[in-house]
Design brief:
This protein is α/β, with parallel strands linked by helices and about 350 residues long. It folds into 2 domains: about 60 residues, Phospho-2-dehydro-3-deoxyheptonate aldolase, domain 1 (Alpha-Beta Plaits, 2-Layer Sandwich); about 250 residues, Alpha-Beta Barrel (TIM Barrel), CATH 3.20.20. It has 10 helices and 14 strands. The protein has an 8-stranded parallel β-barrel, surrounded by 6 helices. Strand 8, helix 3 and strand 9 form a beta-alpha-beta unit. Helix 2 runs parallel beside helix 3, helix 2 runs parallel beside helix 10 and helix 5 packs across helix 6. It is elongated.
Length: about 350
């Protein structure tokens, strides 16, 4: 249920309604838009049966939301959410470019990659310290040592950092070093992990599960948001289909659908979707044209020697080409005002 308040509503009146709702054991989330304030009510609404909220003078309307996801719904928050990460803002016409290697391999490697993606115009630096690999014998990441390297290089180049967490036991540690926490496709429905990440104050990049429907994906976001963390960025990274000419099927149609249903920012990961570097640039552009707020791509100075996912990583010249193409196409669809 959402309670839409009149534009002239005073803070004291809002607080009175919130206290009334929370008194019966329900939770509230306040969304302050440019013109109106909305109070989202979470829990068993029958507890409010004896409270005539609709008749309160400052209440314009009471709307019962039928969607299973409440906080992620555009009904609750009509305006697009803009998330600020150390000055880098996603949404509101900005275009985020998150770039870096699949795995953190060494300090020298991270510094080399950070230098060329920063110079090309990337906003955030990514790198995996914990790697979910299909084979238990593949490189699994450097763990805390990798996190320290990522934090150091991020500060050195003035780039907020993004890295994945795989285990509830590591959430606090990852949040200590990284500016943004990523939930990978394999953990998109790991509800214990989603709830734990929801208790942090770090923005969360939530990748779509490889077999998730859009509603299931938004319900995963709801798990994070229900714990108090409303800074969720949805990342389309391809879904598993019958096609085997490439790794996954990049669902660009999901982007306009999400823009219609949720206020959360949406980015696209063409690297993991395709699995092949040649397809990364055209798929990144397709995502932006479809309405995405940013792209996440893998980049490496020497992908032939990369310890993971070298085949989908862009070399410096190709990454420069990507940024050049983004600068051309973004203004056409009203984005990229932050790109230098």
């Amino acid at each position: 249920m959402i309670i839409v308040l009149k534009p002239s509503t005073e803070p004291e009146q809002i607080q009175h309604i919130v206290e009334m709702i929370e008194k019966v054991g329900l939770r509230t989330h306040i969304s302050a838009g440019e013109l109106q304030t909305i109070i989202g009510v979470i829990g068993d609404k029958t507890k409010l049966a004896n409270y005539p909220i609709a008749s309160i003078s400052c209440v314009e309307s009471v709307v019962h939301v039928s969607k299973p996801y409440k906080l992620a719904s555009r009904d609750f928050h009509p305006d697009d959410t803009i998330i600020d990460v150390n000055g880098a803002k996603i949404g509101g016409g900005n275009l985020w470019v998150i770039a870096g290697p699949c795995s953190i391999e060494s300090e020298d490697q991270m510094r080399t990659v950070a230098k060329f993606v920063k110079e090309a115009g990337a906003n955030l630096l990514r790198g995996g310290a914990y790697k979910p690999r299909t084979s238990p014998y593949s490189f699994q990441g450097m763990g805390e040592e990798g996190l320290k390297i990522l934090q150091k290089i991020g500060k050195e180049f003035g780039m907020p950092t993004v890295t994945e967490v795989m285990d509830t036991a590591d959430v606090e540690l990852v949040a200590k070093y990284a500016d943004v926490i990523q939930i990978g496709t394999r953990n998109a429905q790991n509800f214990a992990l989603l709830k734990q990440v929801g208790k942090t104050k770090r923005p969360v990049v939530l990748k779509r599960g490889m077999a998730q429907t859009i509603e299931e994906w938004l319900m995963s976001a709801e798990y994070v948001m229900s714990e108090g963390n409303l800074d969720v960025i949805l990342c389309e990274r391809g879904i598993r289909t019958f096609e085997n000419a490439y790794r996954n099927t990049l669902d660009v149609l999901a982007i306009p659908v999400l823009k219609e249903r949720t206020h959360l920012p949406v980015i696209i990961d063409p690297s993991h979707a395709s699995g092949v570097w040649q397809y990364v640039i055209p798929m990144a552009l397709a995502g932006i044209v479809s309405g995405a707020d940013g792209v996440m791509v893998e980049a490496h100075h020497d992908p032939e020697k990369a310890m993971s996912d070298g085949a989908q990583s862009l070399k410096p010249k190709k990454f420069n080409l990507l940024m050049s193409e983004l600068r051309k196409i973004a203004p056409v669809v009203g984005k990229g005002k932050n790109l230098s």
